[in-house]
C-alpha cells in the first residue's frame, strides 16, 4: 500500500526553484533511497515530507503531499502530530546534552507521558529497537555526549522511535560515521523496515543499493527516474541516470 503519495510538487527558495513538479509514491514498510549529485534537491524533497521547510523563510510550495491519504499541507494539519508520525534523523547525530535515558524519554514526556514505569519501558524498548540497549543499559544515566558517534546516531533513532512514528526520514545518516558504525546503521535500517516506512538520502550509491528497495534519482530539482533499486542500478531507463551511476558526473 502507498504510504506517501507526492503529486506535482514544486518548491521555491525565494525566486529560485529547487524542486520541479516531483511526483512519486512510496510504499508502506519499504526503504526508498534518494540519490543524486550535491544540490540536486534530495534534502529539500525529504524535508517537504514532514514540513520541515515551514521553518525556512521565503519557501513556497505548490503541489500535493499525501500521507495515509491526508494532505500534509492542508490548513488544518497539526504539524506537531505530523512530525511525531514522520520523524527525522540528520547527518550529524544531535543528542541533547542530557543522559541517555532523558534523551529517549524526552519525546514521550512532551507528549504527556508522566508514569515513571511506562517511561522506563518505552526507553528500554526504543533502545532495543535501535540496537543500542546492550551497549548502554549500564550507563543510562550518563551523558549521551559520552557515546561514540555511531552510538549517538542510534540514540537519535531510539529517540524518534520512542514517540511512535510510522515514517523515518534519514538525511545522510551515516556520512559522519566510520565504516563499522555505518554498517550497524545499515543493519538497523534493514530491521526497522519491518515496521516503518523509511526514506534515506545518501551520497553513497553502494549504500543505496545495500539498504533500499527502491531508488529515486534526482538531478537539478527534477526526479529523473525512480525504480526497484536493482533495476535502477543495472538497467536504468534514462541516459542521465546511467551517466550518473556509472560515475560520468557528480
Ligand atoms: N535554505 C535554503 N535557502 C536557499 N536555497 C537553498 C536552501 N536550502 C537549499 N537550497 C538550494 O536548493 C538546492 C537543493 O539543495 P538541497 O540541499 O536540497 O540539495 P541536496 O541534493 O540535498 O544536496 P547535498 O547532497 O549537497 O546535501 C540547492 O541549489 C541549494 O543551494
From TrEMBL:
GO cellular component term of the entry, any: membrane
Keywords on record: ATP-binding, Nucleotide-binding, Transport
Origin superkingdom: Bacteria
Sequence ranges assigned to domain ABC transporter in this UniProt record: 4-245
InterPro entries linked: AAA+_ATPase, ABC_transporter-like_ATP-bd, ABC_transporter-like_CS, P-loop_NTPase, PstB-like
PROSITE patterns named among the record's database cross-references: ABC_TRANSPORTER_1 (PS00211), ABC_TRANSPORTER_2 (PS50893)
A molecular-function term among this protein's GO annotations: ATP hydrolysis activity
Pfam families with a match to the protein in the record: ABC_tran
UniProt KW Kinase keyword: no
One GO biological process term: phosphate ion transmembrane transport
PANTHER family: ABC TRANSPORTER I FAMILY MEMBER 17 (PTHR43423:SF1)
Protein name (record): Phosphate ABC transporter ATP-binding protein, PhoT family
Organism: Desulfosporosinus meridiei (strain ATCC BAA-275 / DSM 13257 / KCTC 12902 / NCIMB 13706 / S10)
